[in-house]
Design goal:
Helices cover 0% and strands 65% of the residues. The two termini are 17 Å apart. It has no helices and six strands.
Protein backbone atom coordinates (compact mmCIF):
# COMPACT_ATOMS: atom_id res chain seq x y z
CA UNK A 1 0.00 0.00 0.00
CA UNK A 2 1.28 3.42 -0.98
CA UNK A 3 0.38 6.40 1.21
CA UNK A 4 0.02 9.66 -0.74
CA UNK A 5 -0.91 13.14 0.48
CA UNK A 6 -2.58 15.33 -2.14
CA UNK A 7 -3.35 19.04 -1.82
CA UNK A 8 -6.30 18.64 -4.20
CA UNK A 9 -8.35 15.98 -6.00
CA UNK A 10 -6.37 14.61 -8.92
CA UNK A 11 -5.69 11.66 -11.17
CA UNK A 12 -2.65 9.51 -10.50
CA UNK A 13 -0.49 7.62 -12.94
CA UNK A 14 1.92 5.33 -11.08
CA UNK A 15 4.60 3.76 -13.25
CA UNK A 16 6.74 0.82 -12.15
CA UNK A 17 10.12 0.28 -13.82
CA UNK A 18 12.53 -2.62 -13.43
CA UNK A 19 16.25 -2.10 -12.69
CA UNK A 20 16.99 -1.94 -16.43
CA UNK A 21 14.59 0.98 -16.84
CA UNK A 22 11.81 -0.90 -18.66
CA UNK A 23 8.22 -0.07 -17.78
CA UNK A 24 6.62 -3.19 -16.24
CA UNK A 25 3.36 -1.79 -14.79
CA UNK A 26 1.22 1.29 -15.19
CA UNK A 27 -1.37 1.85 -12.46
CA UNK A 28 -3.99 4.56 -12.85
CA UNK A 29 -6.01 5.88 -9.96
CA UNK A 30 -7.45 8.92 -8.28
CA UNK A 31 -6.37 10.80 -5.18
CA UNK A 32 -8.70 12.92 -3.09
CA UNK A 33 -7.55 15.97 -1.16
CA UNK A 34 -5.75 14.73 1.95
CA UNK A 35 -4.20 11.35 2.75
CA UNK A 36 -4.83 8.50 0.31
CA UNK A 37 -3.91 4.84 0.45
CA UNK A 38 -3.24 3.28 -2.96
CA UNK A 39 -3.27 -0.51 -3.22
CA UNK A 40 -0.26 -2.01 -4.96
CA UNK A 41 -1.62 -5.57 -5.07
CA UNK A 42 -0.87 -5.61 -8.82
CA UNK A 43 2.81 -5.91 -7.91
CA UNK A 44 2.35 -9.34 -6.31
CA UNK A 45 3.14 -11.11 -9.57
CA UNK A 46 6.45 -9.30 -10.24
CA UNK A 47 9.64 -11.35 -10.23
CA UNK A 48 12.04 -10.78 -7.32
CA UNK A 49 14.31 -7.81 -7.93
CA UNK A 50 14.71 -4.06 -7.66
CA UNK A 51 12.00 -1.77 -9.03
CA UNK A 52 11.35 1.96 -9.13
CA UNK A 53 7.93 3.52 -8.63
CA UNK A 54 7.50 6.91 -10.29
CA UNK A 55 4.55 9.25 -10.08
CA UNK A 56 3.50 12.88 -9.92
CA UNK A 57 1.51 14.34 -7.02
CA UNK A 58 0.63 18.05 -6.82
CA UNK A 59 2.85 18.61 -9.88
CA UNK A 60 5.82 17.22 -7.92
CA UNK A 61 7.54 14.10 -9.28
CA UNK A 62 8.69 11.41 -6.87
CA UNK A 63 10.51 8.11 -7.17
CA UNK A 64 10.57 5.23 -4.70
CA UNK A 65 12.96 2.30 -4.82
CA UNK A 66 11.34 -1.06 -4.02
CA UNK A 67 12.81 -4.50 -3.48
CA UNK A 68 10.57 -7.44 -4.29
CA UNK A 69 11.76 -10.64 -2.60
CA UNK A 70 10.84 -14.29 -2.60
CA UNK A 71 8.08 -15.32 -0.24
Amino acid sequence: TLRVYAKQNQSLNIRIFNAEGSLVKNIRGKASKGINFISLNELNNLSPGIYFLRSLVDDQPFTLKMVIGNE
